[in-house]
Structures are given as C-alpha cells and as structure tokens.
Design goal:
mainly alpha, globular, about 525 residues, single chain
C-alpha cells in the first residue's frame, strides 16, 4: 500500500465488488506446535530457569542480567523473532528485571558511534543513487586490464576495486553493487558447463570462479580497513566505549592505522590463493580473444561524462574522509578536534556531511537536492538497532555486576599464554558466524565476554576483543556464512567446494595474520602492551 500518497487511506477499505477471501482454517493446538514457536518460547524458558535455579554471591541483578542475556541470545541465534525486534527487547526487559531504568537503557541506543553509522549510510545511499561506485569500478579495472590481458592483474584490479569501495560503504551493499560489474565483464567469456551445475575446469571457467570468489571475499576484507566498513567494527568500538568509558575511544583513524595493514595482508593472501588455485599459465591466451580494454571503455562511454551531482557527491565523500582522518592525529599534532575541546566526534562529521547532502543542489532540476528523505527509507535499521543492543548489554553487564562474576569464573585461563588464546578466540568467532548467526550478532555476543576474559588472563581487553571481532568476519567457507557469500554463490559461477577450499585457506591465513599483527602493530596502535 502506498502510505506516502495522501489520497491513500491509512486503513484498508472493504471493496464489496471483490470476491471475499476463503475463511482461515480453524485454530488448533497442533497448529501451534512448530519449531519456530518452540524457539520463541525458548528465550523466556531459559530466562525462567536461570532466575529459579541459578544463584550468585553478588546482587540479584547479576542473575537477572544473565537470564535476560540468555533470552536475547536465544532469539538472536534462532532468529525466532526478527533480529531488529530482538535488538529492542532490552528496552522492556531491563526495566522489568530491575537491571536499568527505562531512560538509562534507552540512552544506550543513541551514541556517537550510532550517529557515525547513520550519517555514513546516508552518504552511501547518495553514492548508490548516482552510480558513483560503478564509474569508479570501471575506471580502476580499466587500469589493471593490460594489453594483452593479464588474468592475475585483471583479477587484482577487480578485487582491489571491490575492497576499496567496501572501505567506505557497508560490505553487503558493496558486494551487491560490485557483483554485477564483475559478472558484466565475465559475460563476454564463453563459459562451458559440463553436466548439471558443475563446470569444466577450463582456464576460462576457472578465471570466472576466481573473479566471483575474489569479489565475494574482497568485500568483507576491504570493510575491515575502516571503522564504517562493517557493522562489526562499529560494534567493537561501541562496546569498548561502553565497557571502558574512561579509556581512549577507538576513533576512525586509530582503527584505520591497524585495520588497513591487516586488510591489505589478508587481501594479498586472497589474491595469491586465487591465482594458485584457479589461474593457470594458459589462462592469458584463453582470455585474450574475448576480453580486452575495448569492452571496459565501451561501458565507460555508455555511462557518459561525469555529471554535476556525481562530482558533488565525490567532493562530499572526500571531505568526509579528510575530516575523519584529521580530527585527532597524534598527541603532538592534535588535529582540528582540539578546536572544539574534544566535544566533536566522528559521528559529528558523519551527520554534518549527511546534512549537506540535503542542502546542496544536484544540478538536475531547480530546487532538487543531492538527497531526499525518500532515499533514506533504505537505511538499515536492523544494524543500527543491533548496535544499540550491543551498547545496552555491555552497560547492563557492568552495572549489574555480572561482568565481575564472569571474570572470576575465567580464572583458570590465567596461566594460558596469550599467543595460544588469540587464535582460538579468532577461530571461535569465525565458527559462530559460519554456522550459527550473522557476524554482527556474533560480535555482539562474543566481544563483551572477551573483555571480561582479558581481565582474567591479565591482558589488555582489546588484545582479545579485536581478534574476536575480526574473527567474526572470517566466515568464508559456506554460502550462508555472510550475505556477500550468498551474493557470490547465487551467480552460478561457483559451488560449495570452491568456497570450502578457498575459504578454509583464507580463514587459516587470516587467523594467523590477526594473531601476529595484534601483539605487534596492535600493541603500538592500541597501546595494549600494558
């Protein structure tokens, strides 16, 4: 129903001229006995069992917090209730169980990190509206194509473009937008199926596999680079700020100095793995007859010259990045944020430039702006609410005393060396994302617990929280692991075995890189030595 149309009634009007729908089937208890209804009941049942059977030495609010957490996590893991609705459940559960006041828990859902996400998504919607990403992708890929075509470097160009775009927009949106660009290049190639959906291992078919896998995996890898690239990075920053309000928050440029080298190493590993698995010596000759720069130039010609609106969006985009990177530089060079005595945050920048999008003209029609509110109806409120729930749970664990109890329960890990814990933490997060729930939900579940575990093993909390957050983004083996995996799998160019063998190698290499970078570069960037 078109609710935006003022002539459309809000409530449906019965039209007697239309045939009536058949009556619903009679209600029965048997119709209620479904798996989904059982999962819905599972949350309250776990909550009741914990409240009745579990006792702690601390205050009763700690037991209540554990019960509420079990309820919310059960709904998150089973998705019995839509994830956005589960994410707002703390708004009524915390006051009812005496964990926090209604005002207190509501404040957890709005923070500088949340405003950072809101403004960033508005900027991404502007980029999508004017197809700036597609023009950028074609230009960069054209530079890598080579003459004659070089499959490894063309693959590098396509994957690098995807990773770069994903640095500045959510990786799911990046994968959805970049996959048609990649498959459009592959449409010129004669892909030869054998029997059923299996494809012959010819150089051309293998190149198609490599390109689709590259775009599928480059999107989440590129998103690791920046704070706004993935919801997981924002969830980590939010939980860190909520759990340790006296500590220095994770700003955009702080994360970039760690996340970009991390993503670059994992990206190079991806490229090498794809080249070794799928690009043979004869692939260049096989592709030369079908793929050259002329095809890419033709697509650019069809796109036409860059319009005024595209230039304006790029200008706003570049200004946003510059302001993020220079707000707080070093202790000796404070950045422009010092002019406002630390009151301005990354969210301030994000919302300010998002506001500009509704003020600057797009040059198409008189009075028309770069953005209008109808475009903002596409905002991913599920991620925004999930981020708020992460804040609420982290605050609740601290205020209820549950955090201290969990920390004491993990005393047995005190003697385990950090070098052995970090890879395990990374792998556990990856497995949870791969088989159980989304990476955003996995990070929301795991990261608060890791902050308590870090206190037990006497390491800096970020030394475990960062590997746990990154690990939840290393779900590369199954189509259902992440939305970009589904996007790649549905193209028909790859099968599960392609994802299993490539994803397993990438998961192992990624875990090793995170485990090595965190105690070295991470110790310098985040100050985790102490």
């Amino acid at each position: 129903m078109a609710y935006d149309d003022p002539k459309t009634p809000f409530l449906p009007v019965n039209d007697r001229s239309q045939p009536s729908s058949p009556p619903p089937p009679p209600f029965s208890l048997k119709s209620m006995a479904t798996l989904k209804n059982f999962c819905i009941l599972l949350g309250p049942l776990l909550c009741a069992v914990i409240c009745l059977c579990v006792t702690f030495d601390g205050p009763t609010t700690s037991r209540n917090m554990l019960a509420v957490t079990a309820w919310v996590f059960a709904w998150w893991l089973t998705e019995a209730v839509p994830m956005p609705i589960t994410s707002i459940a703390p708004l009524f559960l915390f006051p009812l169980f005496g964990i926090a006041s209604a005002d207190g828990v509501a404040r957890s859902y709005m923070d500088d990190v949340v405003t950072l996400l809101l403004g960033s998504f508005m900027l991404v919607l502007a980029v999508e509206r004017y197809n700036v990403h597609r023009r950028l992708a074609l230009n960069i890929t054209l530079r890598f194509c080579g003459e004659p075509v070089s499959p490894p470097f063309l693959l590098l160009g396509i994957c690098a473009t995807t990773a770069f775009v994903s640095m500045w927009m959510h990786n799911v949106a990046c994968a959805v937008m970049m996959m048609p660009v990649a498959t459009g290049i592959l449409q010129r190639l004669p892909v030869n199926p054998t029997d059923g959906s299996a494809r012959a291992a010819t150089p051309i078919n293998n190149f198609c596999r490599a390109v689709v896998l590259g775009v599928t995996y480059a999107a989440p890898i590129g998103g690791m680079s920046t704070l706004t690239g993935t919801g997981v990075n924002l969830i980590l920053a939010a939980i860190w700020k909520s759990s340790f309000p006296e500590a220095k928050p994770i700003s955009f440029n702080t994360w970039f100095f760690f996340g970009f080298p991390l993503a670059l190493l994992i990206f190079l590993a991806l490229w090498v793995i794809l080249c070794l698995l799928y690009l043979s010596k004869g692939s260049s000759m096989a592709l030369a007859a079908y793929l050259d720069k002329a095809h890419l130039k033709e697509n650019l010609t069809l796109a036409g010259p860059m319009a005024f609106a595209e230039k304006m969006v790029l200008a706003v985009f570049g200004t946003t990045i510059a302001l993020w990177m220079t707000r707080s530089i070093t202790e000796d060079i404070p950045g422009w944020g010092a002019l406002f005595h630390g009151r301005a945050g990354d969210g301030t920048v994000s919302v300010m430039v998002a506001t500009l999008l509704f003020i600057l003209p797009n040059g198409k029609q008189k009075g028309e702006k770069l953005m209008d509110w109808n475009e903002c109806k596409k905002l991913p409120w599920n991620i925004i609410l999930l981020l708020g729930a992460g804040f609420a749970i982290a605050d609740g664990m601290q205020s209820s005393g549950l955090a201290d109890i969990l920390s004491k329960a993990l005393d047995f890990l005190e003697q385990v060396p950090y070098i052995a814990i970090a890879p395990v933490v990374c792998l556990i997060s990856a497995i949870i994302t791969e088989f159980i729930t989304s990476n955003d939900a996995a990070a929301t579940l795991v990261v608060p617990l890791l902050s308590q575990m870090a206190r037990t093993v006497n390491v800096h909390p970020l030394a475990l929280m960062v590997p746990g957050a990154i690990g939840s983004q290393l779900a590369f083996m199954l189509p259902t692991g992440t939305p970009p995996n589904i996007v790649g799998f549905t193209t028909g160019h790859i099968d599960i075995m392609d994802m299993m063998k490539t994803g397993l190698l990438l998961k192992i290499v990624g875990t090793a890189i995170v485990s090595l970078l965190m105690p070295t570069l991470g110790a310098y960037i985040f100050g985790t030595k102490g």
